[in-house]
Amino acid sequence: MKHLTLIRHAKSDWSDAALNDFERPLNKRGKKAAPLMGSRIASAKEVPQLLVSSPAKRARKTAQLIARELAIDQEGIRYHEEIFAAKDKQLVKLIRGFSADQHIALIGHNPGLTDLGQWLCAKAPDWLPTCAVLTLKLDIDKWNELDKDCAQIISYDYPKKAR
Question: DSSP secondary-structure letter at 102?
């Protein structure tokens, strides 16, 4: 049995039109939401052992802020260029190559993460808002066994849900 947590990056800052999409940072709300969601993940039963993130600036910062709340050092975060702008099929290929860790969190972008969640579980949300955390239990023993509809939702949370 494996666990996969899908985390969409926190809210980004659009104030500088000169920045390309990859370089957009988190805005003030995003900088508050990521640690909040990290602490909510930390209080759950299932905590990821490894964070795998897009290297885009907003995803990288989200991963770092969440890692701090989970007491995962910066070496516990892996960055994969292919996560940025990835479609669900590309994410599936990446996940199938994961190591033996039992619980991994994937931090990335929409629509790829939402599409991946729905591919894994038909009951997954049809859109992941910024800094959403979707934790899935996978009916597989090895990551290379990942397949359509192999997951069940353990939890689904996002910053505005607690309001």
Answer: S
pLDDT in tens, 7-52: 999 999 999 989 999 999 999 999 999 999 999 999 988 899 999 9
- Those residues whose C-beta lies under 8 Å from the C-beta of residue 9, and which sit 6 or more positions away, are 26, 30, 54, 56, 58, 59, 62, 107, 108, 109, 130, 131
Sheet containing 133-138: which strands, arranged edge to edge?
Answer: 77-79, 50-53, 103-108, 2-8, 133-138, 151-157
Taking the complete model, does pTM exceed 0.70, yes or no? yes
Give 2-162's CATH code, choosing from 3.30.1330.10, 1.40.20.10, 3.40.50.1240, 3.30.870.10. Answer: 3.40.50.1240
Buried b (16+ CB within 10 A) or exposed e, 110-127: eebbbbbbbbbbeebbee
Between CA 73 and CA 84 the distance in angstroms is 22
d(CA 25, CA 34): 13
Q: From the CB of residue 59, how many other CB atoms can be counted at a distance below 10 Å?
A: 25
